[in-house]
Design brief:
By secondary structure, the protein is of the alpha/beta class. Helices cover about 30% and strands about 20% of the residues. About 40% of the residues are buried.
Amino acid sequence: MTTTPVKPPELRDFYENPAVPVASGTPRSRRQARMLADALGPAAAGGTRTILDIGCGDGTAAATAAPFLPVPGHRIVGIDWSQDALRRARTRIPYAVRGELTGGGLPFRAGAADAVLFSEVIEHLVDPDAALDEIRRVLRPGGHLMLSTPNLAAWYNRALLLAGVQPVFSEVSLRGIHGRPGREVVGHLRLYTARALREFVAASGFEVVRVAGAPFHGVPRALRPLDRLACARPSLASILLLHARRT
């Protein structure tokens, strides 16, 4: 008797699972929000700026950024293709729509956005090149990209590699944790160092303005002071925060 092989779950199915985390840490969100507010500056009289939170997850990044921005001079729109994430995002932000960076692209005209939040997304993508191409399309000339992603070369990852341990944030399976600290499978496909992230974003048609560091909420409590200190050197920080402009 022959048996039909069981089809493994697709990546889309993985992210539609409500058990998969879609929120980012508050310290990172606040630092990114301050960077965005500094980049945008005061709102012009009578004007409204459009900020797209692409891969908005549960809306934490957009909701954190809103109080730092002038009212009523901005409009934040969350975008995600996960219906479960959108349901959660709509409890935090007024606008959340379905869209994706590949395939048909985002449901916005070229140059529609003044800024894009791209928080903890790029590490999940199969084709990050196409994603940055689409972000560049929807940004106006001179528009701002605020990107955050885990740092492959975080201070503790350097020590773990020397000890022969799989780095934090890296994953070898969508079914379980193997060879590294942590308990949650979050679907990371790509990881960047500060240098690699700078070069990649610059090669995609952006001018990199600044790279900063942010702490990771999953660091054990006893090590959190050290993790905050590491933020002074982005190359060692847990999380990389990048500000770039569309050239």
